[in-house]
Amino acid sequence: MRIVGFTETSLLDWHGRISAVLFIGGCNFSCPFCHNYRIADDDPELALVPLEEVTPTLHRKRDWYDGVVLTGGEPLMHPEVFDLCRQFKATGQQVKVDTNGAYPYALKTLLELKLVDAVAMDIKAPLDSRYTKAAGKHLDLAPLRRTIQLLIESGVEHEFRCTLVPGLINPEDATAIGETIKGAQAVALQEYNSSRARVKGFGEAKSYTLAEVEAMAEILRRSVKEVRIRGSFS
To answer: Where does the pLDDT of residue 205 fall: very low under 50, low under 70, confident under 90, or very high at 90 and above?
Structure first.
């Protein structure tokens, strides 16, 4: 497992919290719209960030931070994530993990060991045939469903994130997505920027208007406690 990026202070990566962010190289998906594709591919040109260089900053700012976010890539594909979470918890830090949902048993173990305090899971499309296109690979959807169920039933702080890529998540899909995550604490509807995608221009045929996004949010509020809109929709 390689740490290939470190953001010392973030106000964006943990809703309502101040956090440090560690970027873990490697991912089992190859999403065409991914913005962090060099991290997801564990690009060897990305410099390794030694943990011993990060630790002093985390210690120095421990009373300033609300916690540490592990993102990627896909942190849960690495067995070493358990020891990493243990180290942070041992210093009194709270830990949030971002995941694509493909590793429910690793997540279940982290939760049982009380090594994770919050989780964000990406919902890349309705859980149908489009998910193969969204993930860039043939995909068994059962692990994703298990992760969704685990998060909703566990009571752990959680958020589902939908990046609104035209053709993968359309306004008419809000009802199906709401049923899939029914009972969730929160869902975020996020603006998509095709210029930063792995496949340049992917999904750029149109951009959603604020009115369209708010209509989706209204439908999702029937199923989810809180809907968060992120981006500069016009």
So the answer is: low
Determine the residue type at 167. G
Map out the domains of the chain as residue ranges: 3-230
| pLDDT tens per residue across span 101-154 | 999 999 999 999 999 999 999 999 999 999 999 999 999 999 999 999 999 999
CA distance 25 to 12: 20
pLDDT of residue 23: 98
Judging by DSSP bridges, how do beta strands 67-71 and 118-122 pair with one another?
unpaired
CA distances from 2 to 116, 149, 216 (A): 20, 29, 38
Average of per-residue pLDDT across 69-87: 97
Residues sharing a CB contact under 8 Å with residue 109, sequence separation 6 or more, in sequence order? 82
| Distances 221 to 20, 149, 166, 182 between C-alpha atoms, Å | 30, 18, 21, 10
pLDDT confidence of residue 110: 98
Residue 133: predicted pLDDT: 95
- Exposure of 85 in the CB half-sphere (CA atoms within 13 A): 27
* Segment holding 188, helix H or strand E: strand 186-190
Q: Does domain 3-230 have CATH number 3.20.20.70?
A: yes
**Residue 212 binned pLDDT confidence (cut-offs 50, 70, 90):** very high
Cβ neighbour number for residue 63 with a 10 Å cutoff: 6
Q: Which residues contact 214 (CB under 8 A, 6 or more apart)?
A: 229
Q: Would you state the pLDDT for residue 202?
A: 87
